[in-house]
Amino acid sequence: MTDLRDLFLLDPEVIFLNHGSFGATPIPVMESYRAWQTRMERQPVLFLARELDDLLLEARAALGEYLHADATDLVFIPNATHGANIVARSLNLSAGDEVLSTDHEYGACDYAWEFTSGRAGFRYIRQQIPLPAHSEDEIVDRLWSGVTPRTKVIYLSHITSPTALRLPVERICAKARQQGILTVVDAAHSPGQIPMDLQRLGADALFGNCHKWMLAPKGAGFLHVRKEMQSIVEPLVVSWGYHATEQNTTGSRFIDLLQWTGTRDASAYLAIPAAIRFMLDHDWDTVRKRCHALLQSTIQQICEMFEMPALYPIDSDFYSQMGIAPLPNCNLPLLKTRLYDEYKIEVPLIQWQDRQFVRISVQGYNTREELDVLIRALGKLMPEVISDQ
Predict the structure, then answer these.
(1) Would strands 74-77 and 221-225 be described as parallel, antiparallel, or unpaired?
(2) Angle at which helices 272-281 and 52-67 pack, to 10 degrees?
(3) 3-state secondary structure of 93
(4) Which residues of 155-164 are buried (b: 16+ CB within 10 A; e: fewer)?
(5) Nearest-5° angle of CA 199, CA 67, CA 57?
(6) What is the distance between the alpha carbons of residues 133 and 131, in angstroms, rounded to a whole number?
(7) How far is it, in rounded angstroms, from Cα 306 to Cα 57?
(8) By C-alpha distance, which of 176, 185, 182 is closest to 232?
(9) Are 348 and 318 in contact (CB under 8 A)?
(10) In angstroms, rounded to a whole number, what is the distance separating the alpha carbons of residues 348 and 344?
(11) Which of 56, 78, 272, 318 is the most exposed place for a label (fewest CB within 10 A)?
């Protein structure tokens, strides 16, 4: 089998264990991306004014097939943060209403809700979900203890950014639907890392990134909104789709409003089918399983080295290709600097609540040898950074 590392542009001198932050795009997908850019520049008017809508429809259809979603319920956006802002600002919430979330949410999206709360007057509540997590029942019960008669929306991540914890969103969405509560899901880390079926998941609105685990170029994300909810969605930027005509309509008011927001490079969106093909061509289900096994053993070894319990069951599906291992309290910035300067390891070290841990991403280009270097480096450096705290 081809060494997947050779198919990425990553610096070979760096042990890259941080795919979760910004992703990394394979060379064949980058070639598709650049080909679309070249095609646009050869005849910009033809491409942008007459061809782009149909090309985007083809790309949405490929993404919809991959996510088990109708292409007419999907629209491309630059990233998940963009999606959080669209949804938070579209909902008609006011003083007395509550939006229930968790204390594991990604900062930028969290701030979008905080900002909107300050403008509209609703309460934004971050329910504590303690770690270690032991069962789905425990998480659902803990979240639901924050539901009140004023709860209008539940907003939560599918896979959390700071703790890499997979939340049982299918169960939460189903329970919320029974009680008339809208659900909004941040799936920034889900597509490509775990199989997704948006119909079964059941969120009213869900946004995600294709540039992370799906391997698409930077600037490729999507927003999925249930048909019954699409009429309430408002664009962040009002453009030509606001007055769509027979000449410039996609046939969907939802897509008309959000798809065209002025001149921009849509090449990242159009390269999404190439990213899907790359995963299919390289048996990505097998790649994911190998990555999970590497991550599982790495977390276990770090926990044993520091004699600390894992933050979720080691043999569970609470994590996939991205997971956290606990660290003793230490000088975290110094540890991060030394890991990179002395070992060329790019990995995030997280301070969350009163806990410290390393968040490890294992992608198809990573090897057992690289993860062993991380384990050795932590064992060597930790006594020194603890003493410097």
Answers:
(1) antiparallel
(2) 40
(3) coil
(4) bbbbbbbbbb
(5) 110
(6) 5
(7) 51
(8) 182
(9) no
(10) 13
(11) 78
Reading the chain (389 residues) residue by residue, the pLDDT tens digits are 358 999 999 999 999 999 999 999 999 999 999 999 999 999 999 999 999 999 999 999 999 999 999 999 999 999 999 999 999 999 999 999 999 999 999 999 999 999 999 999 999 999 999 999 999 999 999 999 999 999 999 999 999 999 999 999 999 999 999 999 999 999 999 999 999 999 999 999 999 999 999 999 999 999 999 999 999 999 999 999 998 776 667 789 999 999 999 999 999 999 999 999 999 999 999 999 999 999 999 999 999 999 999 999 999 999 999 999 999 999 999 999 999 999 999 999 999 999 999 999 999 999 999 999 999 999 999 999 995 44
Structure tokens given for 366 = 């990573």
Other beta carbons within 10 Å of 387: 9
Closest to 250 in 3D by CA, of 230, 273, 272: 230
One-letter amino acid identity for 324? I
Sequence length of the chain is: 389
Alpha-carbon distance 154 to 188, whole Å?
A: 17
Residue type, 133: A
Helix (H, G, I), strand (E, B) or coil at 91: coil
